[in-house]
Structures are given as structure tokens and as C-alpha cells.
Amino acid sequence: MQTIATIKPSIVGIGTFLQLRSPAISFVGTGFVVGDGLSVVTNAHVIPGVIDDEHKETLKVTISRGKSTEYRDATLVALDKLHDLALLKISGPPLPAMKLGDSDSVREGQMLAFTGFPLTIILGFHPVTHKGMVAAITPIATQAPSSRALDVKAIVQLQRNAYDVFQLDGTAYPGGSGSPLYDPETGAVLGVINKVVNATKESAITNPSGITYAIPANFVRDLMAGK
């Protein structure tokens, strides 16, 4: 499909580089290029909570160019933990950018595609594409850390922070977090893959549930606009 060939140069890996580590690159998730060609969108949970500055660990994006791989420095410029989104700025010349669509137009039953790096370095630095139907558009809220924290105020806050996400019947694997969810005909980004439902971490590979969630792309637009 021509759309896949067009968007692949916009797909990047997200990780950190530490010279003393083996391997030096710790590959965590996926991102995609938007806007000026130097802006990269991924999940907030993909960004490491702590960078080892003392040992010169740095945030990097990985760009697959056929048989070769390019690494670029990345800087975190915006973070939206509520919607699990992050915006990075990368060094070097601009890359082809994906266009954001209107996620309010998505309907249940619609077929969408997502491209990323499932199983990360195990499959190599080559973007892989999957497809899935929008099985449901359902509200979600950030959970409290424990049941003890669920007082009346916390419950009201949960309800206030609830927002709709896309539930897909396609399987996303570890490393696919941050992949763009897009219209396979136009390539317009309509969401960002952020998690898959599994009983255990091990079953994510051996017995995947086939239930994946994505954040609507309109929240990406808000993040880029500084809202």
C-alpha cells in the first residue's frame, strides 16, 4: 500500500544512549514526526523518568533508513501525563512529517492502521504495520494509586479527568507504544497507540489479548498548541 511507504520515513524509535551500557541504546518505544519535521510525538510513559546525566546518558530517536540506522539527539519540550502524550524536538535536518486528522471523525467499525517497532530491537529497526477495527470509543480515567486514595474528592477528580479513547481489536506489542494510528487511505493521524490489555507482561508476546487502546489525535494538536 502506497500510504505505508509514504509514512514509514516519519516513524522513529525512542530510547536512550549510554556509552558504558551494552547495548548502548536502550530502545523503549515508538514516535512519529509531525509539524516542522523536527517535532516527534510519543507517549509520556515512553520517556524515562530519570536520565543518568552523571554518566552522560542522553535521549535519542532512532531513524531507520533501509539497511542503515541513524541516531539523533532529542529534547523533551512538552508533556501531557493525563493523556499519556509527549512532544520531542530532534536535531538535524527535517524529516517527512505526518499530518494530524480530526479524531472526532472516527467512528466505531472504522478500520485503521498503526506502524511502529513491536518487540523493539528483537525484530530490528524496521517499522512494522498492523491494522485494527475501532471496536469501541470508550471513556477512560487515570486510576488512583490504591483503593485507599479513592475518597469523594478523588472520585470527582477521576470523573472530571475522564476522556474518550479508541479501543481496537488489533494487537500492539511492547515497543509499539507511541505508534501513530492513521487512516490507511489518507495517512492522516487519528490517534496514538498507548497500551494493550494483557493479564501479565509475559502474555503480551505468548498470548496477546488483541485489545489495544489509542489516544485521540486531537489531544496531540492541543499539546502542540500549548493548551
Task: Explain what you see.
With 227 residues, the chain is mainly β. It has 2 domains: 89 residues, Beta Barrel (Thrombin, subunit H); 122 residues, Trypsin-like serine proteases (Thrombin, subunit H), CATH 2.40.10.10. The protein is 12% helix and 39% strand. It has 4 helices and 12 strands. The strands form 2 sheets. The protein has a 6-stranded antiparallel barrel with strand order 1-2-3-6-5-4. The chain has a 6-stranded antiparallel β-barrel with strand order 7-8-9-12-11-10. Strand 5 and strand 6 form a beta hairpin. The chain is globular and about 50 Å long. The N and C termini lie far apart (35 Å).
Quick description:
This protein is mainly β. It is built from 4 helices and 12 strands; from the N terminus they run αββββββββαβββαβα. A hairpin with a 4-residue loop joins strand 5 and strand 6 (85-90).
**What about the largest sheet?**
6 strands, antiparallel, barrel
The span between the termini is 35 Å
**Structural class, judged by helices and strands?**
mainly beta
Question: CATH top level of the largest domain?
Answer: Mainly Beta
Strand order of the largest sheet: 1-2-3-6-5-4
Order of helices and strands: HEEEEEEEEHEEEHEH
CATH topology of the largest domain: Thrombin, subunit H
CATH architecture of the largest domain, please? Beta Barrel
Average pLDDT score: 84
Please state roughly what percent of the residues sit in beta strands, choosing from under 5%, 5-15%, 15-25%, 25-35%, 35-45% or over 45%.
35-45%
The structural domain count equals 2
* Helical content band: 10-25%
pLDDT < 50 runs, ≥5 residues: 143-152, 198-204
User: What does the radius of gyration come to?
Assistant: 17 Å
Individual helix count: 4
Number of strands: 12
**Dominant shape:** globular
CATH homologous superfamily heading of the largest domain: Trypsin-like serine proteases
Protein name: Serine protease
GO molecular function: peptidase activity
Pfam families: Trypsin_2
GO biological process, one term: proteolysis
